[in-house]
From TrEMBL:
<dbReference type="InterPro" id="IPR027463">
    <property type="entry name" value="AcrB_DN_DC_subdom"/>
</dbReference>
<dbReference type="InterPro" id="IPR001036">
    <property type="entry name" value="Acrflvin-R"/>
</dbReference>
<dbReference type="Pfam" id="PF00873">
    <property type="entry name" value="ACR_tran"/>
</dbReference>
<dbReference type="GO" id="GO:0005886">
    <property type="term" value="C:plasma membrane"/>
</dbReference>
<dbReference type="GO" id="GO:0042910">
    <property type="term" value="F:xenobiotic transmembrane transporter activity"/>
</dbReference>
<protein>
    <recommendedName>
        <fullName>Acriflavin resistance protein</fullName>
    </recommendedName>
</protein>
Amino acid sequence: MFAYWGSSTSGPGLMGRDQGSNLGRVTARLSYQKERKRSIFEIADGLRPLTSSFPGVKVRYITEDPLSNMLFGGGRAFNLELYGHDLKTASGVAKRIAKELSKIDGLTDIEISRKEKKPELQVIVDRDRASRLGLNVSDIGTTVETLFSGKTASRYREGGREYDILVRLKEKDREKISDLKNVFITSPTGKQVRLSNVARIEERLGPLKIERKNQQRVLRIMASISPGRGLGDVVRDVQGVLKNIRMPEGFFVNFG
């Protein structure tokens, strides 16, 4: 068993997973089927009551092969594809579909592939002013990323194990916008320049990832299927639900 929590650097998530300081993942490798009495689905169902009591935390269980998740984009037992151009409309329709799917027996861990925009702080550098002080955007970006996200400076070995040594500010020194503004950037000549002297900090919503299939915008509603229910039975129930949901003009659904 191993755990993954957050991200110290930006970049795509491993095996298609999302990254962020508010996200975590625990992966457990089970013994062979013949060595245990319960299926992976029964084990997941047994864990649900334990994690449902965590306040403010959403937990979902993925019982499919993570390699499928990486190679085929999803790896979930059930995938419904919603096609449509308008982002806001698509989000509303997807949420309504997900709500109705949650009422179907045997569908669990329902999830919408497109995430809401996340608030973030953006550093807008005054390039001319920075240049006059001997700085460039790369210098500023590297310093800010190291101090707030962290950077592996070296590795420590002990007892046959290797640990990353992460360099960044203490948590109390990277909590507020003022902490970011007061960061000092070292110029090539050794001069210390306060970040607020060469850049402004703005609160914005981060970019939205838009999926496409066959050159059309697509949004996926994914779920796991509990043991005892076949995919065909679930699809028939879903088709019944979709008949009662009116699709906006230009929108349609397909089973993935």
